[in-house]
């Protein structure tokens, strides 16, 4: 199994958001994590980051998450948070190249070939023109793409992406979803992606995990399941727990 959740319960104090969640992803796959605002999607990802306490078990590649000392530096898990801020001026290319951190020792500088790798990822995302710009001056969508470029360089086996297309225009939304699909198919990555862009999921192969449902399970993405989940989400929401 690549990712497994066994009877996971998580929340904040008395407020339980994830109730007895179990699923298994046996092979590299794209999984769209969907649900109403406040359903607990980010909370679920934070459990993987050990930023939120949980009961039950989360397993990555067959190992209990709690037994893996540092899943990021071992190249097992990468995480793109919904919001990521930088408060100091930094060149886009310098921020992207930091995605190679796990191949470096603490004080080791990035080499010309590291920068070439970063430049190639920026080119794939059609962002080469921004390479020398100060990151803090970019638009919200451009910043989101730069973080994605950095995450691509991390090259982890399992990627958790929290609304990576939230601020993107229609062109980039579909480009990013195609790119994620391509990672799964050509690089055998497993992607868990929180999204509210259900229409963009239609061309994709993978699964939906709707955390607003009373007993969420993996549902194969198809026009029927996307439509059913859309109607489910549009039809109302549970009272705030
Ligand atoms: N540190 C915290 N302490 C207490 N409650 C929190 C904390 N962080 C989040 N919450 C609450 O938990 C609920 C779930 O938050 P979460 O961010 O997981 O939702 P979400 O499904 O990702 O929503 P969205 O689609 O709006 O991003 C929210 O009501 C939020 O206010």
UniProtKB/TrEMBL annotation:
Keyword Ribonucleoprotein on entry: no
Domain ABC transporter: 3-238
SUPFAM superfamilies: P-loop containing nucleoside triphosphate hydrolases
Pfam families (UniProt xref): ABC_tran
GO molecular function: ATP binding; ATP hydrolysis activity
Keywords in alphabetical order: ATP-binding, Nucleotide-binding, Transport
Listed name of the protein: ABC transporter ATP-binding protein
Organism: Pontibacter arcticus
């Amino acid at each position: 199994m690549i990712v497994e959740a066994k009877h996971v319960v998580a929340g904040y104090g008395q407020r339980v958001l994830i109730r007895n969640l179990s699923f298994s992803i046996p092979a590299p796959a794209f999984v769209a994590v969907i649900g109403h605002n406040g359903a607990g999607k980010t909370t679920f990802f934070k459990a993987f980051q050990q930023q939120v306490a949980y009961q039950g078990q989360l397993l990555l590649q067959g190992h209990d998450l709690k037994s893996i000392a540092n899943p990021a530096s071992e190249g097992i898990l990468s995480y793109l948070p919904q919001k990521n801020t930088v408060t100091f001026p930094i060149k886009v290319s310098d921020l992207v190249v930091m995605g190679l951190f796990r191949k470096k020792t603490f004080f080791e500088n990035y080499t010309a070939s590291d920068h070439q790798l970063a430049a190639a990822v920026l080119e794939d995302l059609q962002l080469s023109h921004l390479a020398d710009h100060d990151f803090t001056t970019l638009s919200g969508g451009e910043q989101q793409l730069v973080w994605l470029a950095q995450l691509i360089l991390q090259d982890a086996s399992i990627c958790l992406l929290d609304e990576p297309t939230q601020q993107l225009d229609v062109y980039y939304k579909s480009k990013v979803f195609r790119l994620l699909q391509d990672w799964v198919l050509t690089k055998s990555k497993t992607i868990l992606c929180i999204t509210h862009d259900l229409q963009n999921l239609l061309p994709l192969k993978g699964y939906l995990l709707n955390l607003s449902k009373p007993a969420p399970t993996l549902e194969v993405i198809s026009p029927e399941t996307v439509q059913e989940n859309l109607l489910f989400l549009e039809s109302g929401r549970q009272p705030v727990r």
